[in-house]
Amino acid sequence: MARMFWLTVGALFARERRPAERRRTGRGRLSRTAGLLLVLLALVGSYLAPRTEALKVQRVQVEGADPGSVPEIRQKSGVIGESFWLVRAGDVEKRLEQLPYVSRANVDRGLFSTSVSIRIEERAAQAVWRNPSGAYLVDDTGLVLQKLVTTPRLPILEVADPRPLRPGEKVDASQIAFALALYDALPVELRPVAEKLKWDQGKGYQLVSSGGWTAVLGDATQSEVKLEVLRRVLARGGVTLVDVSSPTTPYYRKGGR
């Protein structure tokens, strides 16, 4: 009798659990179905997004660059007509920083936007490297930025090497450093007439002026001492050639060339 009682009670509890189990099973199936739908929607979205015109980059705004460089920067970025979802700012920045005149690029594609903003930091032109093949803008590291048509008012270093140069190539950085240091150290009265610095394998550096005189400096040592001696010699007037390669025993010539 007792056994029958417990069997009856057990059956009642078993019947009470079955609806709860069915509810849990139903919820599990619903969750799995919803998960599958989300995955399907993500796959469809990833397929359609790159092909949807409304989500393609239509405008590129460039700041900080020379106006003449903007078309090349836009083309180099490679984002016009690209899907917003496929634009990777880091990759675009790396491409832009391959341009010789670009020191740093920062790309902002915004959020769900069809325009991309590009901020450019350009390398600063510090000097002109001139050789028989032409004149080139260079920065303080000797990196060639561009070939020139007209010469700006920057320190000019003229060399005999006839090799044509392309943007992105490098010239002798130590020579550029010396030229910049020399121009900075020029006495105030000599700066307006200092036309160019020449490098000759035999004579070394020569400073050529628009005032009719040429100064032989020799090597890159004792430049400040040499410039002071040069200033004193030129103060005598009528000097056309000064050799201060040995500043303790300078030589100068008046009149003629």
Question: Helix tally?
Answer: 5
CATH fold title of the largest domain: Rossmann fold
Largest sheet: 9 strands, mixed
**CATH architecture descriptor name of the largest domain:** 3-Layer(aba) Sandwich
Strand order of the largest sheet: 6-5-4-7-8-9-10-11-12
Helix share, percent = 25-40%
Q: Would you tell me the structural class of the helices and strands?
A: alpha/beta
Terminal residue distance = 139 Å
Protein described:
This protein is α/β, with parallel strands linked by helices and 257 residues long. It folds into 2 domains: 56-122, Ubiquitin-like (UB roll); 127-254, Rossmann fold (3-Layer(aba) Sandwich). Helix content is 34%, strand content 25%. The strands form 2 sheets. It has a 9-stranded mixed beta sheet with strand order 6-5-4-7-8-9-10-11-12, with helices on one face. A 3-stranded mixed beta sheet has the order 1-3-2. A hairpin with a 5-residue loop joins strand 5 and strand 6 (144-147).
